[in-house]
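User: Structure with MF3, tokens only please.
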Amino acid sequence: MISIKNDVQLGKMRSAGHLLYDILQQIREEMAPGMTTWDLDHFAYDLMRRNKAVPCCLGYEGFPATLCISINDEVVHGIPSKHVTMEEGDIVSIDTVLSLDGWMADSAFTKGLGKIKPEDEELIRVTEECFFTGARMALDGNRIGDISSAVQQLAESHNYGVIRDLTGHGIGKDMHEDPAVPNFGMAGHGVRLRRGMTICIEPMIARGHWQVHQLRDGWTCVTNDHKPAAHYEHTIVVTQGLPELLTYPGFAWPEAVKGENNI
Ligand code: MF3
Ligand code: CO
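Assistant:
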């Protein structure tokens, strides 16, 4: 079932989203070569608790941490560990969910540590661009497939692989609500979008092939060809005009995009 959020509920999701943005900014600054993923996870846990937020990944289907931290060929759902140190040249994806007053926000980004390969820089840049290209299709009356196909076309135009095993999703009082939001598909197909729908768009893009497998830890998702992957995600709400990015408070759509949509 797809739920439509009213203004009061959206206000709560906005508060959760803005807090998550602040926390992810601090995490982005804290990340450094030589740091263990365990220490970064604790940093995030403390920040959430100090702000009265609930770290929702912790305990979700048994996931043991606040952050999913996925390095290089790890796509998503990496488990923080005392034995994993982030190194110069790594690309590190951070994905987390928090709730405030029972309402969830979910966001992810990939950061290169120190000097990284230009081709990894490009992968991160295009993955972010995939998000925005998809998100601008999240218009009242459009369909999920309009988002999916926009993401897929941009990624594949760069010869990247679009992860198919995992998708974006609706969000609200639950972390995962209907509808699923795949990063591949056909324009004009799928569920119709309506004002007040809140969804997470989260391209997971690999520099090689899209096939992935799960490690024996039951969580970490890794590319089969061990080429690096990037992830970028925001929680958004469908509006009368272009979507509002609930987990990116300062964001404004470029005038050119507004013009195309007569806004
Ligand atoms: N943000 C992720 C998701 O999309 C994370 C969840 S998995 C968890 O949906 F177990 F870590 F919570
Ligand atoms: Co998500």
